[in-house]
Design brief:
Layout lengths: L4 H14 L11 E4 L8 E7 L2 E6 L4 E5 L2 E6 L10 E6 L5 E6 L4 E5 L4 E4 L10 E7 L6 E6 L4 E7 L2 E4 L11 E6 L5 E5 L4 E4 L7 E4 L7 E8 L2 E6 L3 E5 L4 E5 L5 E7 L2 E6 L3 E6 L2 E6 L6 E5 L8 E4 L4 E5 L1
Antiparallel strand pairs: 1-28, 2-3, 3-4, 4-5, 6-7, 7-8, 8-9, 10-11, 11-12, 12-13, 14-15, 15-16, 16-17, 18-19, 19-20, 20-21, 22-23, 23-24, 24-25, 26-27, 27-28
Length: about 325
Amino acid sequence: MTTRRRFLRAASVGVLALGGCTRNDGNDGEWIAVESPTEMTLYDVVMTRKGPYAVGEGGRIVARRGDGWRVVVEAGPSGARNALRGASVTDNGRHLWVAGDSGVVGVYDVDAGSMTDHSAPKGMTSTWEATGVVGLAGAEVVSLANGSGEVVRATHADGRVEWSDPVKPGGGSSITSVEFTGRGFGFVTDTSSNVFQTVDGGETWRRIGIRRGSVNLHDIAPLRSNEIDVVGDAGSIFGYNGFTWTRSRAGENALLAVERERHRGLAVGDSGGAFRLTPDGWRRERASNGESLHGVCLGTTEHPAISVGESGTVVEYHK
């Protein structure tokens, strides 16, 4: 899953200045299935400065335009049609980093509409399960994580990308998400109920949970270094306040993606499950006709909240 929350927080500044305007993912709307330009599964969705972009099977990247969704990249960064598992956007929403099967990695400039291929960093061709980005376009730091429990970071400056050697935060379990809240602070989750934290940009990691978690973890949404939410199997949502973990249940099925920003939150998962954070906890909503949802992003003043999933499913939250 993706690091895109800083861009959403930046976009919210104008909302607060308007005093009372709400974004298009409030509590008085509904999820609506819209026409998708692909029947291939979409695994992740992020909000860029040009609106939402989603990635998935076949290396496809699709984007929301005024007249609907359309394909903007047909076959991925390398043209080999490797599935794209994760997407992340820079703090200013300009660069979209994507990664996936067979070591494929690329960066898409949403302003220029151009893709640059950076596949197989350090000769690594395993599947990238998660990607995270922090910083402004042209000066960002990129993090990739794979099924062998490895994290690789890179600096992107003046068109050049410098990759670090891989680091294993844990014992080698598959990493499912990587998120950084700043250049130094970051988190990863894995399939052994582990959450690891770094305060030095990924050089060292320490385990912060989850004791007796007992489920596969799928995504993490950090608000600050000491406040995060994590979702996993069996409808599990774990909250952390810097000291203790609390567990709540949102349905029975696995939750695959979560997004948080201030008092807003969305979580989605298997069988079309969708949940919204309310003052009384997580509330279930109907988002799809049973298709599993793999990715979700919060809305802005200009764009609705989006969730994507199986068979090219795209659902939007409209008032």
